[in-house]
Specification:
The structure is a single chain. It is built from three helices and no strands. The chain is mostly helical.
């Protein structure tokens, strides 16, 4: 019988994953109050880079990076749908 071992992690948490989660949380909470939803873009970028670093350096923090990606892409989707709903209104006002 051959035993397959799960790859061991170094015990270090990827710092960029922490940054990505922080940016996503700030963007999510700030979009309602301060209009800092643009930080979601940086959260997505940092999330993707941290996933690559985690895989390459065998670090921890994968679930944090994925959470940042989910929040970042969720905010981006919400913003896109929000803009698309205002296009007909803007076109109607321009034609009046």
């Amino acid at each position: 019988m051959s035993s397959t071992k799960a790859p061991s992690t170094t015990g270090r948490i990827n710092v960029l994953a922490i940054v990505a989660v922080a940016l996503a949380v700030i963007a999510f909470s700030g979009i309602w109050f301060f209009g800092v939803g643009i930080l979601a873009t940086f959260a997505v970028g940092a999330g993707h880079v941290s996933l690559n670093q985690i895989k390459r350096k065998n670090e921890r923090g994968r679930s944090m990076a994925i959470a940042a990606l989910v929040l970042g892409y969720g905010l981006a989707t919400w913003a896109l749908l929000n803009v698309l709903t205002y296009i007909p209104v803007a076109l109607q006002q321009m034609s009046s």
